Amino acid sequence: MDARITEQTFARRLAQDLKTHVKSLVVVLAPLILLPLVITMPSEPIFCVYVIFIVLCYWIFEVCSVAITALLPLGLFPLFGVAPAAVLFSVFLSNTSFIILGGFFTAVAIEKCGLHKRIALKVLTMFPGSTNWLLLGFMMTTAFLSMWISNTASTALMVPIVQAVLEELQSTTERSAGFTDNDVDLTMLPIEDTVHDVTTDGVALKSKKSIPEELDVGNNSNDNEQLRHLQSEIGDIQADDELADSPKSDVHDLEEEEDAVKVPITGIDKAFLLCICQSASIGGTGTLIGSPTNLILAGILGTMYGPDTGLDFGSFFLFAFPCMCLLLLISWLWLQLFFLGAGPRDLLKLITCRNSAEERKKQAGVKSLLRREYDQLGRMNFYEKAVLGHLITMAALWLTRDPKFVPGWASLLPYPAYVKDGTVAVLICFSYFVFPSRRPQLAVCKRKTSLNPALLDWITVQQNLAWDMLLLMGGGFVLAKGVELSGLSAIMADTFQGLKVLPTVAIISIVLLVVVSVTEFTSNTSTATIMVPMLGKMAEGIGLNPLMLMVPATLSCSYCFMLPIATPPNAIIFSLGKISMSDMIKAGFFMDVFGILAVLLSTFTTGTLIFSFDVYPDWAHSVDPELGVNATCVCC
């Protein structure tokens, strides 16, 4: 008996030690696993595979920050003779890196002046107060914000607003009288306290009411450990805080009181909360700066194929925005069907605006709530107008630099080829630091004058900018360059030539299914960094336009709706304790399927028009001169 207890104790302690030191073991073991292959078959492609394997293992097990791991190729590729350091360092900071900076600076400026809160409330006041229209309003608002700022930041902003609206809907249902001014107010859930430290791919959440303090959501590439820790501690967070502050003798009474007043979670609650995280992920695919994976695509394309691939902010927007709108509409209809039980009659009733007296009372209460909160913001000040002007100017210059179907403003310059989207981003970034945040006034007749600060200052940028994302994306560009220079890309292209017997639709469907499945469990940025260059070489091997696989796969990297650990917006919503794992998985599974179908439809419609997917481009490295894209294979 004692021996058995000793064995069990030893096994338990051994398991605990392995769990505690697993990262240290991975650091040591990952380089040793493929070391015999490197010794017995020394060649540049093998060295490249060895480095990629080490980086991938360190990313999966998160032995350190993902951004720091992304720097490994900069040191290992030159040591193994894969690529010269000078070439790798020049790739690390490219045109795409400065587009990233432009998006980051704009996001910080928007959040600093509170423009995102004004936009959210203004859009919501434009929708009717019915449940269905409000659901669409929340989704459109969140998606629009996610096109320009972090998905995590837009989710953290919208959570307090949607909670207040849900409380208003609940209280209006229970009241027999009309709406009064003593009802729930958004100040009960302060937005400014929720969005504490926002970066473009992450935000540190410090809300005391809606998000647990333990959750420090950065980019979803290096916060999976915290998200997994969050899963084990999800519960009624507000109740835990009350119990911690109360005497032990009152614990039983508090539990009985909590059970007595606990409000059941309805389908409306689930639909409104899930619509925020789903629309945040969908909205991030709408622009080139909306999601880090989109920028990884642009950078890897430039690294592998040069600047003439035809993908820039404007062309990506024309392709991705219709797909985003389609999937947003599908998500709206699906959430109503799944959680609200809406059918064809309900949708017809929604379109014709036929509402009962009770429904009109709810609408009036919600509209009054949103209008009151928007009025409390006051008139739009000079600071907000200036930041909005910079945002519109940057987007307009990106869209009109070279729109393809008509000459852009760059054609008016002496050297139009010298101008890229990064040029616009750098100029806008500089303007943020010199443009005044208050309306300039002459102080000749004033005794006291005060400094007029700029829209941004360096201290704010240092604190809120996602520097880790710059390192991560730069590391991805270096990996892609190493794959090309080592000759591994040519080997991969030859290997995948056997897939050319499959129909094009089947090939793309398989790729999207694999990418969506992988990104549910791993970081979407890591998935894009590894998969996108591989898919480019796979397309060369089977004679497809590389964009035909790389662009759809990049969009699908953001379609991870099933699990809380898949993306920070999912984790934020799940941490509220109102969404069960089964509800998130069921609703998210079908959204993953709808996302794949939406991308397939866009690939063979708008993709063919904008990127000429059905033509093998001159800028792609040809594998076989007789190999070309068979236009009929699209219909196979």
Automatic annotation (TrEMBL):
Its main location: membrane. Keywords: Membrane, Transmembrane, Transmembrane helix. GO terms for molecular function: transmembrane transporter activity. It comes from the Eukaryota. Pfam families: Na_sulph_symp. It is a multi-pass membrane protein. GO terms for cellular component: plasma membrane. The chain crosses the membrane at residues 20-39, 46-74, 86-110, 131-149, 313-335, 382-400, 412-435, 501-522, 542-566, 587-613. InterPro entries: SLC13A/DASS (IPR001898). It is found in: Membrane. Belongs to the SLC13A/DASS transporter (TC 2.A.47) family. NADC subfamily. This is Solute carrier transporter 13. It comes from Meara stichopi.
